[in-house]
User: Which sequence fits this backbone?
């Protein structure tokens, strides 16, 4: 049995040791980071529940239809749909949708409140309705309380979204 010193074997052993150590360390870091993000998101949601009685009026550009009056606590999100905007809101604990003739930019200007966030060029979300957020620097997917489909947070808004959840 030859136990002579060999530099190649030493380099292989250092490489294997590094690989065996780096994989569990990376997994643990990612798990802790996700736990941290969830706790920060939950604490942010809890602090944003003071202005629930504010009422907004969303102007409908069609003259024969009425404007939409909605409380902040009832507003879930708004979605651009061609020349219309779909407003999703709660009414008697049931998710309802109303389509109005407007642009998402004008709706965002009318709904100027720190609890409402434009997360995409087509979406405005109520931050107090967020259940979970998953993603990375390329974009997040946000789940809102009564709405089951995920809503994207585009790369343009990720930095601002992270500032809300940190």
Assistant:
């Amino acid at each position: 049995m030859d136990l002579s010193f060999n530099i190649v074997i030493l380099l292989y052993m250092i490489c294997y040791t590094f690989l065996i150590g780096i994989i569990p360390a990376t997994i643990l870091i990612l798990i802790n980071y996700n736990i941290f993000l969830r706790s920060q998101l939950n604490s942010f949601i809890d602090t944003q529940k003071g202005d629930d009685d504010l009422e907004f009026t969303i102007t409908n550009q069609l003259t024969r239809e009425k404007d939409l009056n909605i409380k902040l606590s009832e507003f879930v999100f708004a979605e651009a749909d061609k020349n219309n905007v779909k407003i999703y809101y709660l009414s008697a604990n049931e998710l309802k949708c109303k389509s109005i003739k407007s642009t998402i930019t004008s709706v965002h200007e009318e709904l100027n409140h720190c609890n409402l966030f434009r997360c995409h060029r087509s979406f405005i979300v109520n931050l107090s309705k967020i259940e979970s957020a998953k993603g990375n620097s390329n974009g997040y997917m946000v789940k809102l309380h009564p709405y089951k489909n995920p809503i994207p947070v585009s790369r343009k808004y990720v930095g601002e979204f992270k500032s809300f959840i940190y």
Q: What stands out?
A: The chain has a mean pLDDT of 83. The chain is about 35% helix and 35% strand. The longest strand covers residues 84-91.
